[in-house]
Amino acid sequence: MILMSTLYIREVPEAVAETLKERAAAQGQSLSAYVAGELSKLAARPTNDEVLARLRKLDRTGGPSSDEIVEAVQAGRR
Questions:
Q1: At what angle do helices 31-44 and 14-26 cross, to 10 degrees?
Q2: Of 6, 23, 34, 69, whose CB neighbour count within 10 A is largest?
Q3: What does the pLDDT read at residue 29?
Q4: CA-based nearest residue to 22, from 34, 6, 11
Q5: For residue 5, what are the CA distances in angstroms to 2, 36, 68?
Q6: d(Cα 32, Cα 24) in Å, to the nearest integer?
Q7: What is the mean pLDDT of each run of 10 residues along the chain (78 residues)?
Q8: For residue 59, is it within any domain?
Q9: Total domains, the chain
Q10: CA dihedral (55, 58, 59, 63) positive or negative
């Protein structure tokens, strides 16, 4: 069973509300269903901090050295 919460969002600019209503209608959805779907997509994306944490955990011992990177960049500029 999936539990659902109710959110009330205040102070949404009228132009934003109208755009969301139009997009919901274009997809044959209610505004609530459309916004819930968009919020689900947003919540599923990792934050910048989460991405950085994942990158910091990667093993980079087999990668190029700083000198090799600088050399490759300089070669590309010639």
A1: 100
A2: 34
A3: 98
A4: 34
A5: 10, 10, 52
A6: 9
A7: 92 98 98 97 97 93 90 91
A8: yes
A9: 1
A10: negative
25 found inside a domain: yes
Provide CB contacts within 8 A for 31, sequence distance 6+.
20, 21, 24
Among candidate residues 69, 13, 53, 22, the one with its CA nearest the CA of residue 30: 22
- In total, the chain counts a number of residues equal to 78
Q: What is the pLDDT of residue 11?
A: 97
The residue range of the domain holding 39 is 14-77
Two structure tokens written together for 70: 């600088």
pLDDT of residue 31: 97
pLDDT, position 61: 85
pTM over 0.85: no
Distance CA 74, CA 68 (A): 10
Q: Does 4 fall in a domain?
A: no
